[in-house]
Amino acid sequence: MNKELFSNMQKQMAPSPEVRAALSEKLAQPVKKRPVPWMKYGAVAACAVLAVGVLGASQYPSWEHILQNFRPSILETKLHSYVTVDSLTGYVQENATTATGGSEEGDQDMGMTPVDLEQAMLDVGYTQEEIDEYQAIGYQMTWANWWKFVHQQENSEGADPFNLDSLKVFSQKELYINTGALPAPNTGDLPGGAYVGDVPVQVGAEDYQKLMDRFNGTYPDWYGGAYLDQSGRLVVQLVEDKDPGDKTLELQVLDWTGSDTVMFSSCKHSLAQLHELMDQLNALPNTDPQCKEVMAGWGVDEEANHIKLTLTQVNDHILSVLARLDPDDDAIYVQVGQRTTADVGTEDPAVHHVMPGGVPIPDDEDLIAEEPWVDNLDGAHYDIRDLPEEKKPAATDFAHEEDSSADTSAFTPACDPNADFTSPKE
Amino acid sequence: MEALPLRAGGEMDSVIDRYQDMVYGLALTRTGNRADADDVFQEVFLAYCQCGKTFRGEEHRKAWLLRTTINQARRVTASSWRQKTVPLSEQEDAPVQFREPEENQVWEALQDLTEDYRLPIYLFYFQELSTQEIAKVLAIRPGAVRMRLTRGREQLREMLKGAYFDE
Predict the structure, then answer these.
(1) Containing domain of residue A413, as a range?
(2) Which domains does chain B have, with CATH numbers?
(3) H-helix or E-strand containing B74?
(4) Any residues with CB less than 8 A from the CB of A370 and at least 6 apart, and which?
(5) Which of A332, A336, A341, B37 could tie A326 with a disulfide, CB 3.0–4.6 Å?
(6) Does residue A422 lie in a domain region?
(7) Which of A150, A169, A198 marks a domain boundary?
(8) Do B41 and A13 touch (CB under 8 A)?
């Protein structure tokens, strides 16, 4: 009964024929597109016109000026980073390749011809006889080692720092460091009994030559270069992205060289990429006179896996050109500095790290480490009261708490104004 | 039953013929007057025609129409325009009249229920949907549907002084 009731009610809950006809009529009409809200667009346009009008009539700069002000920052040219070098004594020869000494360019790197060596030895005071004697030994002196020796001897306390024995000792030491060659007993005339002419062939040199024979001048994309480490062993750089990580490349290199002493390292750039970049750098002086003026030397450093470029001075033009060549700022290492007379050793030059854009970071001044300096002191005696206040050594603050009888501290006597300073040697 | 195309928009007359009572009845139950139910009825089938939807089956199409009807009815009754206007004629806002007094009594009692109870009662007793189907249309749990049916029945029993809506 209830079901019938609900059914009857449902039958009466039906749309009227008029409503149904209206629906059919609406369905028969084509679908109307959504009306474009012209009113809304008009309001936005009116607001924009009003804003431009207000800006134009006021003291504020026009849109053109605003855009001009923004444009330089938007289109700012990216500059390559660089380091400034105080005294550029080391040098990078054009088209030089460091470290391996096996490539065509590598023979030039750091090498010192006999004429160079003779002239350098004459400059520091060696006689022609000493030069001939030393050159008869057969040690292959490099510029790096030569400046290292000069620097070392200049800082020594001897009356005659540049004597033949010291040069031979230095050569023997460097030979041992670089090759691991132990002094051969009584076979030569070097102090200690070693004869540098009997140097065993570097372990890695043959491996390197075998590797180069395999490459035959065309480097694969996984090869990032190679160099000899301190012990003379060959270190092959593998490009990170190309190394499958399953040791296949390592095994292949070991197979090619037939050696089990080759070591491997990973790097970012392949040697082919660096050489391609070198070609672009080589062409730069011919195509860009502004670059030619400042480019002093450049070469591939396979150990560091980048190109070292030396500039005599820096400007935005060359930095922007380098930024285009090296967008990631890590394939070209740019150092800027004037070449000085090489009267110091070849220690790493003072390098100021520079942010992109070229603002050097000043070296921190360590006031505490500075020795007090007073003009009227004779060097043997000075009074604590004469010391400048702001540069007073920090150690004097602690000296009061220490036992005044202890004479191990050089500052201790200075705590007593009446006490004379006594140097430790005395 | 004749098979209708599952793609919306095709054979509209056949679709309207089959579902018009269901849509209009639900719209009338939800809005309470024929004028609004007429609007909802037209809007639902216009939306159906333009949606371009392909249904998985007849149950899917039925559920879609019910759900759209509830949404359209809510939109019509909740619009600020409707709340601020007064009908020009008494006929527009006239209560729904049925033929039999008993039917009017049941209808009035049904209209006195809140919406939460009214729609499940209508769908269960008039459209004969299962609690599962009602739960899907109203987007609530079946247990909630059963609870609302029970409470709605109790209220109707009290108002109608009789058991029109059996368990």
Answers:
(1) 365-426
(2) 1-96 (1.10.1740.10), 99-160 (1.10.10.10)
(3) helix B58-78
(4) A391
(5) A332
(6) yes
(7) A198
(8) no
Q: Do A31 and B50 touch (CB under 8 A)?
A: yes
For residue A9, what is the nearest residue in chain B, using CA coordinates?
Answer: B103
In B, which residues are within 8 Å of A11 by CB distance? 21
Of A5, A19, A27, the CB nearest to B46: A27
Residues A64 and A120 reside in one and the same domain: no
> What tokens were used for A201?
């062939």
Contact A30, B50 (CB under 8 A): no
Share of chain A above pLDDT 70, in %: 59
Q: What is the pLDDT of residues A62-90, one digit of tens each?
A: 566 665 665 555 556 678 888 877 655 44
Distance (Å) from the alpha carbon of A58 to chain B's nearest alpha carbon: 44
- Are residues A5 and B102, on separate chains, in Cβ contact within 8 Å? yes
Burial class (CB in 10 A: 0-12, 13-18, 19+), A363: exposed
Q: Do A15 and B38 lie within an 8 Å CB cutoff?
A: yes
Which two three-digit tokens encode residue A309?
């470029």
Q: Does B14 lie at the interface with A, CB-CB under 8 angstroms?
A: no
For residue B12, the chain A residues in CB contact (below 8 A) are 27
Could you give the C-alpha distances from A46 to A40, A42, A50, A62, A66, in angstroms and in order? Answer: 10, 6, 6, 18, 21
Last residue of a domain, one of A49, A74, A99: A74
Residue of A nearest to B29 (CA): A13
Claim to verify: residue A59 and residue A117 sit in the same structural domain: no
Q: Is the residue at A323 inside a domain?
A: no
- The arithmetic mean of pLDDT across residues A405-413, rounded, is 39
User: How far is residue A212's CA from residue B78's CA, in Å, rounded to a whole number?
Assistant: 84
Contacts of A23 in chain B (CB under 8 A): 16, 41-42, 45-46
Tell me: pLDDT of A60 over 60.
no
pLDDT band, residue B44 (cuts 50/70/90): very high
**Least trusted range by pLDDT, from A23-27, A74-78, A223-227, B118-122:** A74-78
Q: Nearest chain A residue to B41 by CA: give it.
A: A15
What total number of domains does chain A contain? 3
Partnered with residue A341 across adjacent β-strands are: none
Confidence of residue B89 (pLDDT cuts 50, 70, 90): low
Give the A-side interface with B, CB within 8 Å: 2, 5-6, 8-16, 19-20, 22-24, 26-27, 31
Are B49 and A27 inside 8 Å of each other by CB? Answer: yes
Q: Highest mean pLDDT: which of A107-116, A177-186, A326-335?
A: A326-335
pLDDT beyond 90 at B117: yes
- A65 assigned to some structural domain: yes
Look at residue A397 and tell me if it is in a domain.
Answer: yes
Whether residues A126 and A47 fall in one domain: no
Flag if B24 and A14 touch (Cβ within 8 Å): yes
What chain B residue is nearest to A33 in terms of C-alpha separation?
B50
Integer-rounded Cα Rg, in Å, for chain B is 17
